[in-house]
Amino acid sequence: xxxxxxxxxxxxxxEALYPPQExxxxxxxxCEDLCGFKxxxxxxxxxxEAPEELVAGLGRLLAGEPLQHVTGxxxxxxxxxxxxxxxxxxxxxxxxxxxxxxxxxxxxxxDLCTGSGCIAWTLALDLPGCRVVGVDISEEALAIARAQFxxxxxxxxxxxxxxxxxxxxxxxxxxxxxxYIRESEKARMHRNVLEHEPDLALFVPxxxxxxxxxxxxxxxxxxxxxxxxxxxxxxxxxxxxxxAVFSAAGMEKVEKEADFxxxxxxxxxxxxx
Length: 273
Ligand SMILES: C[S@@+](CC[C@H](N)C(=O)[O-])C[C@H]1O[C@@H](n2cnc3c(N)ncnc32)[C@H](O)[C@@H]1O
Fold this sequence. Notes:
Elements: H1 3-14, H2 20-35, H3 41-44, H4 52-62, H5 67-71, E1 73-76, E2 79-82, H6 92-102, E3 108-112, H7 118-126, E4 131-136, H8 139-146, E5 154-157, E6 171-176, E7 181-182, H9 191-196, H10 199-202, E8 203-204, H11 211-223, E9 224-233, H12 239-248, E10 252-258, E11 264-270
Parallel strand pairs: 3-4, 3-6, 4-5, 6-9, 7-8
Antiparallel strand pairs: 1-2, 9-11, 10-11
S-adenosylmethionine binds at residues 87-88, 90, 94, 113-116, 118-119, 136-138, 141, 159-161, 177-179, 200-201.
């Protein structure tokens, strides 16, 4: 099949799953990310054939798989991160958390619930000499995190809901993007997230949605240096309650921060000197 026909028919078929604009941009990204075709190639070189790889990729998108699982990567802070069914696909709002952490110029960072390692790796690569440790409960996620690039952070398996082992050396900065979507919010979510991203990375019980933040506050108390700083990504509907968790744990300068859509998306705090 010729590329223009593939794009036209592929976008139309994907409209069964996505709004028209998104369906079209998904097909164009598939063409670029799998085969290197630019978004204008089908116009300037209409004689191009759609390779078999592209047809198979479209089949996977039509079966509801996220584009990133078909291509195997997602860009985050300018680098390509490997992704798969055992890790959350890095989201653009999390880039802001990384930039806020980088602005502190830390010499050491502890990244809880590290998943693909996108936060830990970006900090390690952008801040040469910075000691970075990433923690996750999932060995499958840690295997992906360790394989992203050469060198970089230490990745350790631990349950953040349990108290931490004492650190030999406490950290300047703590980052965490823990699970924060309530089970009841599933009804509002897209099928490709529900069926293809890990529940372990996403969901918390409706009756205790802040369970991870109480646990992060315990880790922060034990593993941050006096005067150390932390930042967590949060559920936009629970900003005040999440901030209150860190205040109740004795943290100072507890502040909410909005994301690029103006939604409460982060809470930062400082450990007392
Ligand atoms: C929202 S994802 C964040 C992944 C990555 N940091 C990011 O920002 O894209 C949450 C991560 O928490 C991990 N996780 C879930 N329960 C955990 C627990 N009890 N202890 C440690 N990590 C946990 C999941 O495996 C998942 O990788």
